[in-house]
Amino acid sequence: MNGKLKQDLAALWQRILRTDATKLFGKHHKSIRDYNEDDWIAQPGYVGSQYRTRGLVFVAVNPGGQKREDIGFADSKQYKLLKKLRDAAPKFRVAAFENLNRDLVRSMKNWNIYRRYIPEILKGTDIGFSDVAYVNLVKWRTVGEGMPRAVVKISWEAHTREQLALLRPSLIVSLGKSIAGPFIDEFYNEEVHNITIPRTRRDLRLSDGSKAAIKLARTCLFRWIKRRE
Question: What is the pTM assigned to this prediction?
Answer without folding.
Answer: 0.94
